Structure prediction request, 230 residues.
Amino acid sequence: QVQLQQWGAGLLKPSETLSLSCAVYGGSFSGHYWNWIRQPPGKGLEWIGEINHSGSTNYNPSLKSRVTISVDTSKNQFSLKLSSVTAADTAVYYCARWDVDTSMAYDYWGQGTLVTVSS
Amino acid sequence: QSVLTQPPSVSGAPGQRVTISCSGSSSNIGTYYNVHWYQQRPGTAPKLLIYGNSKRPSGVPDRFSGSKSGTSASLAITGLQAEDEADYYCQSYDNSLSGYVFGTGTKVTVL
Prediction:
């Protein structure tokens, strides 16, 4: 059974850098792309970016200038950094896996981390 | 702003059939990209409901079905149950935005 366990700081001030990590337990780490997705309170889902085991990344063009996703294959973990945060970055952040076997749908998700940006 | 448009809400009585539409364009659903559907109950992470336009993951009841035609997709729920009350999102890839996109979301209410 695959499990994604995420953690990171939940309260930030404007201009700080958001930092979250996600550990993957069970299943293959190398055979998938690992994603970050966010959801502002009461709103819909927004894709942030993805990375594979070799470090190849794709980012949402609207966030690309502020986002860095990295991977640590020795720990089966991947991380998100979002710089220069503002109140508009307040959201629940999810890590998720997409699988070729499910036509690149997100089949496993982390529990979510609420990140609040406030002065 | 989402490029996939869904109705904000749909409702139905227990046992009824409801459908949720997901309207896209020639740069996403209208291409060869698949459409996926997720169910999200309050306070929880989304759960994969339909993948590859019409396939159900193991454990998802066959009351849920998906289809795609042209630049739109739809999710149908038959035999509506109280536990189906949740938010539902469609998702695909957009080649003009070079990224994955989600629908605006639909709240299903069981009357």
User: Anything to note?
Assistant: Chain A has a mean pLDDT of 95.
